[in-house]
């Protein structure tokens, strides 16, 4: 099992957001997590990736047979966990090229690999740019600075392609994307899918799941996964709305 | 006249131990260049993060000292030691007598215990004064010191295009590349040599940009200056080499008072680089330098500094007091003087490299990165005095404060009535690391005609938690992330450093910012 979350409880400033959550992901799987605003979907992503300020008050997160609860965020990333940010961050003055090379070599160093050669790095950049249809002028710019909403999201997938993670969490990658960009992003993700990695897709809408077909759909409500099913659950949810879910869970 | 202001605030940074490494060459867009440098950079990072101030060693070179304290006798001693002509002694004495009438300035945003000027040794020189043919004849201790600094003359000789006039304590030890320079008629030597060999030039220009009456520290320097560099670029000559001097304070409780004079005649061009490190000491060391630059018609002088003197320990003990007067005079039409500085060291920095734009169409530039950590204090900036018509000036200042340090930008843009159509653009950015440090901006603008345009922009920001997490999430640890972010922030200025400086700058620029942040 790639990711195994057991009885996880997460609090922000003392307030419990995730309550006794259980969640498993195997290699080769794509999981979608849906649910209304404020139910803890992004908090779950933050807890898995080790963001500070998200206090794990109970439970365990196992990744590649390691309990990663006490690991720093950079170590978790180096183990192969990637987060596509809902709101990608701007870093003025740091070019995408410089940023990605620093990141790749940090990860290689963690795995006891020598730094990637300049030629190989450039080759990789060119390859992955095509994957998400990203312009060279963007990779020469500072990280996310002056990128449009769609470009920022594409840039996240571009980074994901370069870093080749074992587990990728896409936190509302579809929000703010027009239909063309959505397709591009989905195609990128589909191209990266393999038996050796897994995806967790956090989304409000079924729309993205038309392009990235999940193996499992989970519904989160009030800090817990209240319902799991196959891709049809997403359709059902879309049709009946989250109100249906509330009744369903209260019943 | 229009003034625009922009204030941006970032979010809170977390409690972390910070170490920052600045790498000049990282910011060159050229990918290969940056990739090449990266290995070096990683080594540097390792080096600087390993321990305390790396250059805090003490090398045991036999030294001649002046008696402690400052009297006319001290000045006569220095002058005699240096076998100076009578006119030089007279200049020193005049300055000293003027200094006695002055009081230490207190307007800067700096706090330090009173300096006892009678407790300072005003002259120290390596006893084995070398008149050497090759490096083999140099005191091995001295060579070792250079090796530790990573700037051995050996290495320097190999570095193409860099002539080095190395100053240890107060006397120039070895000057290289003289032959190449002299072929072009360029004079590049220690100030003492210039006094001996080119007295007419020294007499003509010394004190014309920074007179001994200018300020307290300028008067002090004029009275007791030990040595420094002299550079003369004759008419129409573009220096084929970047000129470089390394200053180093090396004897306990010894003030160091360099004096540099650079003159570029009509159409001349020179790029001059100054870099500094100092050994760790408990006593505060006083340093009061003067740099004067004169550019005639169509001449251009680029002056770059990397200052990495001992900043004091984490408790704020020790460190260099750095009170410097640097000023350039754009005397000729279409002349240009630009200052680029990276200030990382010293416990106290008081420094305002300035340009007096006298010639019509002359240009003054000031690019600065000033980093303070722990208990360091910096009050630095620039003055642009516009006198000529159509004169232009640019000020880009990037302050970075961490620990419990205070970092102030102080700048004056003065446009005189005759400076028609003068233009200035100033940008002062402050970056705060943690919540116990301070960033201050004191811009003074004084325009006396209607045709001029002065713009001032200022921003204050913090490294945000979001930025750090974003880097962390890509596998970059916090230390490297801060280096990356700070480097990005300072890129605009670091890009101005001459490429030839890069290798040395990388070493000298590396600084450990380790403090109680947040």
Q: How large is the share of residues in beta strands of chain B?
A: 25-35%
Q: What is the subunit arrangement here?
A: heterodimer
Structural class of chain A: alpha/beta
Detail the poorly predicted runs of chain A: none
The side-by-side strand order for the widest beta sheet of chain A comes to 6-9-10-3-11-12
Q: What's the CATH topology name of chain A?
A: Rossmann fold
Tally of individual domains of chain A: 1
What is the CA–CA distance across the termini of chain A? Answer: 32 Å
Derived structural class of chain B: alpha/beta
Greatest interface: A-B, 42 and 34 residues
Portion of residues in beta strands of chain A equals 25-35%
Kindly list the characteristics that best describe this protein.
heterodimer, A: 251 residues, alpha/beta, Rossmann fold, 6-stranded mixed sheet, 4-stranded antiparallel sheet, 28% strand, globular, B: 518 residues, 10-stranded mixed sheet, 6-stranded parallel beta barrel, 26 strands, 24% helix, 33% strand, disordered C terminus
Explain how this protein is built:
The complex is a heterodimer of chains A (251) and B (518). With 251 residues, chain A is an alpha/beta fold. Chain A has one domain (3-193, 204-250): P-loop containing nucleotide triphosphate hydrolases (Rossmann fold, 3-Layer(aba) Sandwich), CATH 3.40.50. Chain A is 41% helix and 28% strand. Chain A is built from nine helices and twelve strands. Chain A is globular. The mean pLDDT of chain A is 91. Chain B has 518 residues and is an alpha/beta fold. In chain B, 24% of the residues lie in helices and 33% in strands. Chain B contains twelve helices and 26 strands. A ten-stranded mixed sheet of chain B has the order 5-4-8-10-13-15-18-21-23-25. A six-stranded parallel beta barrel of chain B has the order 14-16-19-22-20-17. The longest helix of chain B has 20 residues, at 31-50. The radius of gyration of chain B is 22 Å and the shape is globular. The two termini of chain B are 40 Å apart. In chain B, 59% of the residues are buried. Classes of the chains: A alpha/beta (251), B alpha/beta (518). At the A-B interface, α2, β7, α3, α4 and β8 of A face α1, α10 and α11 of B.
């Amino acid at each position: 099992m790639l990711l195994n979350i057991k009885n996880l409880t997460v609090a922000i400033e003392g307030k419990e957001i995730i309550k006794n959550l259980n969640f498993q992901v195997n290699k080769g799987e794509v999981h979608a997590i849906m649910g209304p605003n404020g139910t803890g979907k992004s908090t779950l992503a933050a807890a898995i990736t080790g963001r500070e300020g998200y206090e794990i008050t109970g439970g365990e997160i196992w990744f590649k047979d390691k309990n990663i609860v006490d690991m720093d965020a950079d170590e978790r990333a180096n183990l192969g966990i990637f987060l596509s940010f809902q709101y990608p961050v701007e870093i003025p003055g740091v070019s995408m090229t410089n940023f990605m090379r620093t990141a790749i070599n940090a990860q290689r160093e963690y795995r006891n690999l020598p730094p990637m050669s300049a030629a190989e790095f450039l080759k990789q950049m060119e390859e992955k740019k095509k994957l998400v249809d990203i312009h060279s002028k963007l990779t020469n710019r500072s990280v996310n600075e002056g990128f449009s909403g769609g470009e920022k999201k594409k840039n996240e997938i571009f980074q994901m392609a370069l870093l080749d993670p074992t587990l990728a969490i896409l936190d509302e990658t579809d929000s703010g994307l027009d239909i063309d960009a959505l397709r591009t992003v989905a195609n990128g993700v589909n191209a990266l899918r393999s038996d050796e990695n897994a995806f967790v897709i956090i989304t409000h809408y079924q729309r993205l799941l038309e392009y990235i077909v999940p193996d499992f759909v989970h519904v989160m409500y009030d800090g817990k996964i209240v319902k799991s099913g196959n891709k049809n659950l997403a359709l059902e949810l879309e049709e009946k709305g989250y109100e249906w879910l509330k009744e369903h869970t209260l019943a | 006249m229009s003034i625009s202001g922009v204030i941006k605030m970032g979010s809170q940074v977390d409690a972390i131990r910070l170490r920052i490494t600045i790498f000049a060459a990282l910011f060159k867009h050229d990918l290969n260049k940056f990739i090449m440098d990266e290995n070096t950079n990683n080594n540097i990072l390792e080096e600087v993060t390993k321990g305390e101030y790396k250059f805090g060693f003490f090398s045991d070179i036999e030294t001649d000292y002046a008696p402690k304290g400052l009297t006319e006798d001290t000045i006569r001693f220095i002058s005699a030691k240096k076998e100076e002509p009578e006119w030089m002694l007279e200049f020193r004495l005049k300055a000293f007598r003027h200094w006695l009438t002055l009081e230490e300035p207190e307007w800067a945003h700096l706090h330090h215990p009173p300096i006892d000027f009678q407790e300072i040794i005003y002259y120290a020189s390596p006893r084995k004064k070398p008149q050497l043919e090759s490096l083999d004849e140099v005191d091995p201790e001295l060579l070792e010191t250079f090796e530790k600094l990573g700037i051995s003359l050996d290495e320097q000789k190999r570095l193409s295009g860099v002539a080095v006039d190395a100053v240890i304590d107060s006397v120039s030890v070895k000057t290289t590349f003289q032959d190449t320079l002299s072929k072009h008629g360029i004079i590049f030597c220690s100030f003492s040599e210039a006094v001996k060999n080119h007295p007419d030039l020294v007499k003509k220009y010394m004190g014309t940009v920074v007179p001994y009456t200018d300020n307290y520290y300028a008067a002090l320097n004029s009275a007791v200056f030990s040595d420094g560099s002299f550079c003369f670029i004759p008419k129409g000559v573009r220096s084929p080499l970047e000129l470089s001097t390394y200053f180093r304070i090396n004897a306990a409780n010894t003030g160091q008072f360099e004096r540099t004079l650079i003159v570029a005649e009509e159409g001349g061009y020179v790029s001059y680089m100054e870099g500094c490190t100092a050994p760790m000491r408990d006593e505060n060391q006083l340093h009061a330098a003067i740099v004067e630059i004169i550019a005639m018609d169509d001449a251009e002088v680029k002056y770059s500094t990397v200052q990495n003197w001992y900043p004091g320990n984490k408790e704020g003990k020790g460190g260099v007091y750095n009170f410097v007067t640097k000023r350039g005079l754009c005397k000729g039409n279409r002349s240009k003087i630009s200052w680029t500085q990276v200030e990382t060291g010293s416990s106290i920095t008081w420094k305002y490299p300035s340009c007096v734009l006298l010639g019509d169409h002359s240009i003054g530039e000031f690019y600065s990165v000033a980093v303070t950590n722990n208990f360091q204090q910096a009050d630095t900036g620039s003055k642009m005095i516009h006198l000529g018509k159509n004169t232009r000036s640019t000020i880009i200042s990037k302050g970075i404060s961490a620990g419990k340090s205070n970092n102030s930008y102080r700048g004056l843009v003065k446009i005189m009535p005759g400076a028609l159509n003068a233009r200035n653009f100033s940008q002062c950015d402050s970056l705060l690391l943690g919540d116990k440090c301070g960033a201050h901006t004191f811009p003074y603008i004084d325009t006396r005609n209607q045709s001029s345009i002065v713009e001032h922009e200022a921003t204050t920001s913090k490294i945000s938690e979001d930025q750090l997490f974003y880097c962390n999430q890509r596998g970059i640890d916090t230390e490297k992330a801060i280096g990356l972010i700070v480097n990005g922030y300072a890129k605009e200025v670091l890009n101005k450093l001459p490429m030839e400086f890069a290798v040395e700058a990388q070493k000298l620029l590396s600084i450990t910012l380790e403090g109680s942040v947040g």
